[in-house]
Amino acid sequence: MKRITLPLKEEDILSLHAGDAVLLNGTLYTARDAVHKKMHEMMERGEPLPFDLTGNVIYYVGPTPAKPGMVIGSAGPTTASRMDVYTPELLDKGLKGMLGKGRRSKEVRDAIIRNKAIYFIACGGAGALISHSIKKREMVAFEELLSEAVTKLTVEDLPCFVGMDCWGNDIYEEGEEQ
User: Fold this and answer.
1) Do 164 and 170 touch, CB atoms closer than 8 A?
2) Pseudo-torsion of CA 78, 80, 84, 87, nearest 10°?
3) Are 20 and 174 in contact (CB under 8 A)?
4) What is the pLDDT of residues 135-150, one digit of tens each?
5) What's the angle, vertex CA 105, arms to CA 98 and CA 18, rounded to 5?
6) Which of 65, 81, 115, 158 could be bridged to 91 by S-S, CB 3.0 to 4.6 A?
7) Total-model pTM
């Protein structure tokens, strides 16, 4: 497994290939459907976003409430394709990675290639395991969205795989071909 420190650096992105097993360490941000729409609207109005996209990774997750003594509840990935309409715009503005589950659209693939970015995937159903990798959680924006609010997560050895690398190689397509 490759250990990667967030935020992402270009040399890290270039070293990763579809199918690689990865352990993420550092800071990532949570955002799902409603947040993506809000950020799109903010960009249309010329307003600053709630966090700097540059080099960062967005984790598509809506965690369950934390149990006493825990930082977060179950924190498994959600289906990434629901964010595809907004993802190319975010990548063009500096976002370098996403973490979710499932396939991405051709438009997202093209934006990943154009921006030398990456798409990580985590196993659906592994939310309880993933939550143990989350060491700190801070509210950033849109608290009214509850579990879908933007939060800043500090992670240690969060397990995932490269779903699509910066050249557009896609683990889902490769799996079908094999």
Assistant:
1) yes
2) 90
3) no
4) 999 999 999 999 999 9
5) 55
6) 115
7) 0.95
